[in-house]
Amino acid sequence: MPQVRNNYIDGAWRPAELCSESYNPSDxxxxxxxxxxxxxxxxxxxxNVARKAFTHWxxxxxxxRSDILDRAADAxxxxxxxxxxxxxREEGKTLPEAVAEVTKAAHTFRxxxxxxxxxxGASLRSVRKAVDVDVRREAVGVVGLITPWNFPFSIxxxxxxxxxxxxxxxxxxxxxxxxxxxxxxxxxLHEAGVPxxxxxxxxxxxxxxxxxxxxxxxxxxxxxxxxxxxxxxAVQIIGRGAKLQLELGGKNPLVVADDADLDxxxxxxxxxxxxxxGQRCTASSRIIVDAAIHDDFVERLLERTARLRVxxxxxEASDIGPLVxxxxxxxxxxxxxxxxxGGARHAYGGRVLxxxxxxxxxxxxxxxxxxxxxSINREEVFGPIVSVFKATDFEDAVRLANATxxxxxxxxxxxxxAKARAFIRASNSGMVMVNLPTVGSDYHVPFGGRxxxxxxxxxxxxxxxxxxxxxxxxxxxD
Length: 478
Prior knowledge:
Layout: E1 4-5, E2 7-9, E3 12-14, E4 19-24, E5 27-36, H1 40-57, H2 62-78, H3 80-91, H4 95-115, E6 122-125, E7 131-139, E8 142-146, H5 154-165, E9 169-173, H6 179-192, E10 199-201, H7 206-214, E11 220-224, H8 227-240, E12 243-247, E13 252-256, H9 262-274, E14 284-290, H10 294-306, H11 326-338, E15 345-349, E16 365-368, H12 375-378, E17 385-391, H13 394-401, E18 406-407, E19 409-413, H14 417-426, E20 431-434, E21 450-451, E22 454-455, H15 461-468, E23 469-477
Parallel strand pairs: 1-5, 8-9, 8-11, 9-10, 11-12, 13-14, 13-19, 14-17, 16-17, 19-20
Antiparallel strand pairs: 2-3, 4-5, 6-7, 7-23, 12-22, 15-16, 18-21
């Protein structure tokens, strides 16, 4: 029986009366780990400790903060094979995808190690004689981070790294489905020399997240997850004037114009819709194809999808692993079962797959005759389901792409520079991909959406500076 992994509070590993267990979604007989469940009192303690630690941490040298983040990046680099294997066992994404996620986390820490010493302000002349103006950026304070299970290592990394780089104290509440890999991140930061109270982690369910959000001494909250939970958090945070950053769902369109390279477009559609078992907020769930090439595209998409191999996340032959949990398997199955009654024409897949390991395996599904009245096209499914739309022309394709309250990521495949530029201008999404899948992002530029997909400053790059710092303007007379 694995030992219980404890919460990390005030620089020490704190036990709890209750614990949870997680099992491998590829093989539900395999116990991944046991984890202490924090109490609301633990959350209060963590916030109080963070408030005290902030007084000193915000005044530390940027070089000291940079060195800690660099050491964390080094540790992640050294441990990438081990961490990626654990991530695959716990979340269910294939090993190559897990390696890519862990590698991105290392790059993120290293990037923000550099940004810690590059935090810039501005020096300006006042409109008044003999007065100068300095605008500086300072840390916000105590920051609560609530992170999801679908990218359980890279998202905690890309929230924690900038928060720490700019002098904030962090309390991380990871998804209860992926405590093991989050615990390893806490351990890495502990070994990297983060002072007590500067980074802490509390594990548990929604009550722990609610206790963190509602604490009046938490100055900012960054949440990635469902739109429904995000709205509940917004009511509390905005009401008391704290800073808020929400990254929520998506119904991301991929437009395939009549001049597109079809082989590349199909490959992008398959990777965007089905890889990571469709459990990405940027997944391509709506494929909008020009009528002139629609039938050819669909034929190629069906053939390419039929060759995908669904299996154990650690099996080298697997293209796609399992869904993360029994609840997620049930949710995705319900959408597939309901789709035909809404007018969607079932073209491929959508079965729960039986395997000797009793994992949460689901066959990718394709539906045709897509329209925005269908629930699978209005709501975020978070599974390997794609719906294909037929557009009469380019303008119709743009209209369909924008016909959603979400606005996270959108893509287009075209050989026309003019169409690409026109799509970028017209898209309502926060991110636009040209001749690329709708998934995938860089750690040094802003990540985030618009509309129902997001609230507040973007994550990463310049967005991270905006959220994790606040400005102070000083006027100085001779």
